[in-house]
Each structure stands twice: as structure tokens, then as C-alpha cells.
Amino acid sequence: MDTINVAIQKPIEVSKELEKINFSTLFIDKARKKEVTYDKKHTTELKKKKKKVRYDKEDTQFQVFQKSMRMMLIFGQCLGLNPFLGVTKNDVTKVRFTVFSGRFLYAIFILVSQIIGTCFCIYRFMNNVFSVGALGYFSFYISTASTTFLFLKVGRKWPRLVEEIHNSELNEYIDNKTKWKCNSATIILLTFAFTEHIFATTNRLVAIINCKTNETLIYEEYIRVTFPWLDDANVPIYLPLGILLQFQIIVTTMNWNYSDLFVVCISMYLTGILEKINDKILLASKKTNLTPAYWCSLREAYTRATGLVRHFDEVINGIIFTSFATNLFFICLQLFNVLANGITTRQGREKCPNYVRGPLRGYENAVYLTFSLCFLFGRSLAVSLYAAGVHTASQVPAPALYEVPSCVYCEEIQRFIDQVHGNKVALSGLNFFYVTKELALSVAATVVTYELVLLQFSGE
């Protein structure tokens, strides 16, 4: 009997031991799963915290402005513009202007070369019959020299301007798309500018190759055609001089386009701030539980934003004036050339010994004139509309404030409405004109009037 009991107890004890082992294994597995789940959650939380910290470091108006303008400003420094330090820095104290820097000396070198080109154009006026082509060369050099000089003044005021951005207390109203917009505008406009320069160079080279009859080297003939005053001044052509002049014409051509790009990017940044404030006003106008203190904070944010627009205008209004004046003149000049002479494939080259040679088989002039005119129109329209967008965005709060429910209407809202209607918030051209959408229509009407007058005088 005892033997039987012992035999029965042994399997029971074995089964209990197995249960203990299974239970401990199950407990360990559950603990491991919990540990893995905790590790995953902890890792995810750490990533979120790191991401949040990274965004917080960039989440200031100064940081956004620096990152948005960086590509555009660096390219400008390659042209002798924006001669200040700290373009790539994220510390406002590192942005400074000094005459003892390579950027400033390079800007002076470019400015002197453009002034020399202007003087040669004046010399040509004094020794030759006046022509539309000579006027175009003179206007090209005087406008680019003026632009370089104005950017020297902008560079001197730039450190103070970024301090105003840093102290604006508008970090709550950041447009995260500003960097993408400015970089896209920079790439697109500069691509078109280089394309136009390539078409112009190709057109000139093809004309030289088609009509070349003497033993003069092609590069010498190209330099003489591109810089016609060298013959007037009896300046001999050497290869180092040709390389220097070619570098100068590329820099000057990009300078001619750069002021428009600069105005567009600044306008995008300012419009982005105003639009973020407008979004908050539009949401608030539909609520019925907001206090006067909340409306006061919105009005003060709008005041700081419009004050920032005025600070920018004080610094860049000369650039805006030069941009609009230059675009107006060259649109009239290009239209006059097209309407007076037409867009032809021959351009008077049908008698040349090598006629119809070139990559476009004689269509180089037609392609260049068409592309140049369309690019000039598009560039001018972009500057007008983006700069006018600042004024348009500043007027958006008024209709939203009128829609505020009467139960929450207060003195702060009335002050806000009076402020929107009473202040002119817009970029200007040396305070001679404000850039609004109405200005674009006025410029178009002016172009038509000037073209009719020019065609009438050319017919006589």
C-alpha cells in the first residue's frame, strides 16, 4: 500500500514542478514583452522629445528668416551684393557689417567695374550718333551700378534689421513654408536668368561666326561686339582682359536680375507673418467666448508685424524703386525693338557668307528675343504681385473683424478696425509710390503709352 502511495505521489510532485517551470517561463515572457513594449514607448517618446527640441531651437522668426534667405543672400554675395557677415549664422550677434572684410572689398571692385562701364558708355555717347542700342547699354550699366551701391547701404543697415526681427516677439506666427518658397523662387529665377544669358551669348556668337570674313579670332570679335566702346577708346584686346570682361558681364547680368529676386523673397517672408496673424483672427472672429484681452494681444501682434514691414521698407525701398524703374525701361525697350524690327530669323544676316550656321539653324535671334521678352514680363509681374501681397495681407483683418458676434464686440475690436483702415501698410519705392495691385495696372498702362510715343517718334 505504501509503495502504491509513493508511486502516486511522485507523478503529482513532477507535475507540480512542471507547472512551476511553465508559470515562471510564462511570467518571464510577459515581463520581457512588457520590457520590450516599454522600450519601444520610451524610444518613441525620446524621438518626439528630440524632435520637439529641434523644432524649438528653430522656432524663432530670426531662425526662419536666416534659413529662408540664406541661399538668396549667398548668391548675392557672389555678385558683390549683401556685403555683411553672418549669413549662415544662427546667432543675431554674429550678423555684422564691416568695411574690413573680403566681401566689402569685392563689392567695391564690382562697383568700380560697373562705374567704368558706365563712363565708357557716356564716352560713346559723346563721340557717336545717339542710338537706341547705345541707350540700352548705358541704362544697363547705370542701373546695375546703382543696384550695387544701394546694396552697400542695405548691408550697412542689415544687422540692425535682423535685430528688429529678433526682438519682434512674433515667434507664434511662423510660416513653415517660407524657406521652401524662397529657395524655389531663387532656383527658378536664376535658372531663367542663366538661360537668357546663354541664349544671348549664343545669338551673338552665331552672328559673329556667320558674318566673319577676316582673320580676327572669334573671342576678340565677341568682346568687341559685347563691349563696343572698346573700339571707340582704341583699347587693344588681350586674352586676360577678355576673361575679366566676360566675368564682369556675367556678374552684371545676374545683378540686373537679382534685385527682383531680393524683393520677391522679402515680400514672401513678410506676407507669411501677416497671413499667420490673419488665420488666427479669422478663427477668433467665429468664437463667442473671447475676452477683450485676447483681442488686445492680437491687435498688438498685428502692430508689431506692420512695424516690421515698415522697418524693412526703410532699408529696401531704394532697391524696390530701382527694380521697378529698370523693369519699366527695359520692357519698353524690348517691346520697341520687337515692334519696330519684328522677330525674324535672319536679323540682317542673309548676306553673310556662312549664313544659317548654328545650333538652332538661324532661329537663334527669334528664340532669344521671345524668351527674353517673356522672362522680363514674367519677372516684372512676379515682383509686382508678391510685393503687393504685403499690402493685400494687411487689409484682410478688417472684413473678419466686422463679422465678430455682437455679444463679444468691444473697444479693442473697434480700435483694431480703425488701425487696419487708418494705416497704409505696404512696401514702397523710396516713398514715391506704394506697391499695390493697382500699381501693376498703372505700370501696364504706362508701358502701352510709352510704346505708342516711341513708335510715333521712330516713324518720324
From TrEMBL:
It comes from the Eukaryota. The chain crosses the membrane at residues 104-126, 132-152, 315-336. It is found in: Cell membrane. Its main location: membrane. It is a multi-pass membrane protein. One of its GO terms (cellular component) is plasma membrane. GO terms for biological process: sensory perception of sweet taste; signal transduction. One of its GO terms (molecular function) is taste receptor activity. This is Gustatory receptor. It comes from Dendrolimus punctatus (masson pine moth).
